[in-house]
Each structure stands twice: as C-alpha cells, then as structure tokens.
Write a structure and sequence with these properties.
The chain is of the alpha+beta class and 98 residues long. It is built from 2 helices and 6 strands; from the N terminus they run βαβαββββ.
C-alpha cells in the first residue's frame, strides 16, 4: 500500500509571500511522511531541486457554528504541513497558464 506523500499545495496569502520573497512553497503532506520522502516527492512531481524541507504538525481546532436548532460544535482535523525551500533560480507554477 503506497501512501500519497503530497496531498495538496497550500494557497494562502502567507504562502504567496513566502514563495515570492524566500522561494519557499507550502504543502499539506501525509502524516507519516518524513523529510526525505517529501523532498523526493516534490522533486519528482515538479522537477525542481529542493534545498531544504521543514515540517510541522498543525493542531486540531475547535469549531462551532450557529444554526436554527442551536450551536453545533465540532473540530477541524490536525494535519502535517511541509515548507519546501527550492534552490536559487527555480520556481513552481501552481496555476499554469491562467
């Protein structure tokens, strides 16, 4: 059973600033993936050279919303995030030809 290492890229205001200024890209990755596996997956998928990988586990968050029947409480699951720094002069284009 092969696990999918890269789940999806994170597209947010902060990640766009990181990619523009520091050449770092953020991904949501599999919880059991290590830095070496993440490096190989990014290099294979986007054909770039990765210089470093930082990982962090984002904790789960409690969420609540108001409805007609009252307040519903739940939580947003925890996930693992990887911040990948590319070698100088390389970039990843997530949007293609828009």
């Amino acid at each position: 059973m092969a696990k999918t290492i890269l789940i999806k890229p994170i597209i947010s205001e902060k990640s766009e600033i990181l990619s523009g200024n520091l050449n770092q890209y953020s991904f949501i990755v599999h919880n059991k993936a290590n830095k070496v596996e993440i490096r190989k997956a990014v290099e294979a998928m986007y054909s770039v050279n990765v210089s470093s990988v930082n990982t962090l586990i984002m904790p789960k968050k409690a969420k609540s919303r108001n409805t007609k029947s009252g307040v519903l409480k739940g939580s947003k699951s925890a996930y693992k995030k990887a911040i990948v720094k590319l070698s100088a002069g390389e970039e990843i284009d997530f949007f293609g030809d828009i």
